[in-house]
Write a structure and sequence with these properties.
Two copies of one chain form a homodimer.
Chain A lengths: L4 H22 L8 H11 L6 H12 L6 H4 L1 H17 L3 E2 L2 E2 L1 H5 L1 H19 L10 H12 L4 H11 L6 H26 L4 H28 L2 H4 L5 H4 L5 H5 L1 H18 L8 H11 L4
Antiparallel strand pairs in A: 1-2
Chain lengths: ~290, ~290
Amino acid sequence: MPVDINELKSYLAARGKRVDAALDAFLPRPNRRPSTIHKAMRHSVFAGGKRLRPVLYLLAAAAAGSQGEPRQAAIFEYLHAATLLHDDVVDISDLRRGRPTCHKVFGEGMAVLCGDALLTEAFAVLARIRPTPRYRTGDFVRELAETGGSRKLIGGQVMDLEGEGKPLDKGAIVRIHETKTAALLATSLRLGAMSANATPVRLDAVTRFGRALGLAFQVIDDILDVTQSSETLGKTAGKDAAADKATFPAILGLDASRREAARLTRSAMRALDPLRGNADRLRQIADYLLVREY
Amino acid sequence: MPVDINELKSYLAARGKRVDAALDAFLPRPNRRPSTIHKAMRHSVFAGGKRLRPVLYLLAAAAAGSQGEPRQAAIFEYLHAATLLHDDVVDISDLRRGRPTCHKVFGEGMAVLCGDALLTEAFAVLARIRPTPRYRTGDFVRELAETGGSRKLIGGQVMDLEGEGKPLDKGAIVRIHETKTAALLATSLRLGAMSANATPVRLDAVTRFGRALGLAFQVIDDILDVTQSSETLGKTAGKDAAADKATFPAILGLDASRREAARLTRSAMRALDPLRGNADRLRQIADYLLVREY
């Protein structure tokens, strides 16, 4: 299946714009008091990301036969932004996607509170999701909270923090990335599919797709951190090495890391088989991620 | 209605123990990997607090005619601990309730992540609450998230942070404490009452009680910060003045602050009238808070 990259890019850009519109419509207005925190929230959310997680939410909903609500899709961006900005506080990173980080602009105290506010706002919005015959509101909330919690996303950040300067093996790095990155990608797909009342078989398919894709995505991110300049990346390059973090290229070497990314992407593709033609856009995204220049 | 303080104290201690047992049973075990974060969560939650918010949850459930689940009551302690420990990171406070703060023991990065984990865990538990005929799971989640968010609790922290060193008037301080303290007390009562399927009249009664009580509680806290030693308080005394924070005593003077606390407590009492005898324990607590030696 040859992918028309330009067609895909404009499709993704259009979906991303719907997410941006929802973010703008539903995040508290910047002049709402106390205005500093609401400005900080928007600074962190409108930072030029690809809106990958919300788009996956919408595509999984589509693959399960329904449109998907951009307002619900957008909450993955709240959670993602909260993670990044607290990460930046912890790592004392000054640059993110080519822009000064939240704590550089608003101060460390405000950045901590801003992450808390985004986390909390995600649940305020998710609480409004319409239940389906198969899935209750509590199911959505529980999945998001468990994914964001100490045994998954935050657990991965902790392992990452504690692993700095230590020799980690491949298994340890895989565990970090499964929890830190892949889990949230999988959950964005799962919640999208659940919002469309997906059958268990379809839900399982997008889950396995998300986990493999997330891991592939992270391997590629590690590779790019080694091979690209800060300018191209839009963030401080080489910071993994500077922080003495274990990465796939550091352990496996570049070539083996590239093969690992390709293998994971094929495994993501196979996971989508039960969804047949409904998952073509998800396949294209996986394919697209593999042709990034790394 | 004369209060038997010793009887009330042992009643509250018994309720607090049920909450402690639920916290111990349902927080991730300390040896669960990654263990540092789970140890940090327990360090922050088991720090000798009075469990006021969970106890209010249970008493409001009782006032509305049902027992109340300690596991659900306990999540207010997650949220409260998360707020305190992120506050301590922001304020660089080393001592809390006579013990070293989370960031002193586990480092700043872990303390930021620990607060995030506690926040998120609160929603993971709340997602499991049983809906009632009047209130759906989403109603509980939305209330907690809105109370914890940028327009209430976090908004109050922001106003507090931004108010340091500035001359604030009484209205501004009231707004800070309404959002930073009273809102969460009111919500712990509301969710307890909702879990017991409270009528709108009863729900309104505990809400107004909680707001007045929360404000009274904060006025008293301000007074104690001026009048007590660090040893008695179990935290650094005089830190409001040291941080140049506007407080009730600083603006109104001590005597007027004491009268304000008494007035707010009477207003809290009146709010409970519709609940009649079912709210006796709540009345006793309000009375008890007023006889603290301030």
